[in-house]
Automatic annotation (TrEMBL):
TM spans (from-to): none
GO MF, any single term: DNA binding
Alphabetized Pfam families for the sequence: GapR_DNA-bd
Name used for this protein in its record: DUF2312 domain-containing protein
Keywords of this entry: Coiled coil
Coiled coil, from the record: 2-36
Boundaries of every GapR-like DNA-binding domain copy: 6-76
InterPro entries named among the record's database cross-references: GapR-like_DNA-bd (IPR046367)
Amino acid sequence: MAEATDDRLRLLIERIERLEEEKKGIADDIRDVYAEAKAVGYDPKIMRQIVRLRKMDPNDRSEMEMILDTYKAALGLG
């Protein structure tokens, strides 16, 4: 029984290691896309914000934008 459990644990650890490697590769690919965008004149910082906003639920995004507008108005920025 213990040997089967040990094998299962080893397989799970190996899967995690493979996925971590894939994740690193994907992160490198994303970094390359941002570098390409910067090379043609886009602002990667703004692009990252847009990606973050697009991931958000529309209602959460709307609420965040309203609060941001309120704060900006209170500070004379908007």
